[in-house]
Specification:
Blueprint: H1 26-35, E1 40-44, E2 49-52, H2 54-60, H3 66-69, E3 79-81, H4 92-95, H5 99-106, E4 110-118, E5 121-132, E6 142-150
Antiparallel strand pairs: 1-2, 1-6, 3-4, 4-5, 5-6
């Protein structure tokens, strides 16, 4: 069985030949996000998670080494679900509309609800994501997202 890779078109190019070099503009943001008491995460232009707060890591059920591995947001092991009673996995078009990814595509503040399966428990988050810029470049170099849990944790 062949596995297909979801490709989300972004206007910005990857920050390096392998997509892993951190844009210097994001360094300060990375420090702030890693130290934050709020549930937040920082994505590079290629959707890699380059920083995540302890609270966001806990809420999403991600491992402590997620910042070292820098997986793409949609490949970090999260199981994104729709809001139907059956809680079906999201299809590719719906994944592209999640606020942290959408902010990179639109260069605009984005907000969406996000439902995930965290070790058999369905969790819903209100997510607000802002694109981050490095003038004089026009395209976003990253996105900063804040997650607010909805309901019991």
């Amino acid at each position: 069985m062949t596995q297909l890779e979801l490709v989300i078109p972004l206007r910005a190019t990857a920050p390096g030949p392998d997509g892993r070099r951190l844009d210097p503009t994001l360094s300060t943001w990375r420090t702030a996000v890693s130290a934050s008491a709020d549930a937040c995460l920082l994505l590079a232009a290629d959707t890699r998670i380059v920083a995540i707060s302890r609270e966001a890591r806990r809420a999403l059920g991600l491992p402590p080494d997620v910042e070292l591995l820098t997986p793409r947001f949609l490949d970090a092991g999260l199981r994104f679900l729709d809001f139907s009673a059956g809680a079906h996995p999201l299809v590719d078009a719906e994944l592209a509309r999640l606020a942290p990814v959408q902010a990179l595509q639109t260069d605009a503040l984005e907000r969406s609800l996000m439902r995930i399966d965290c070790r058999g428990v369905h969790r819903t988050f209100d997510v607000t994501a802002s694109p981050l810029h490095a003038p004089p470049r026009l395209d976003a170099v990253g996105s900063l997202a804040f997650l607010t849990p909805m309901g019991p944790s």
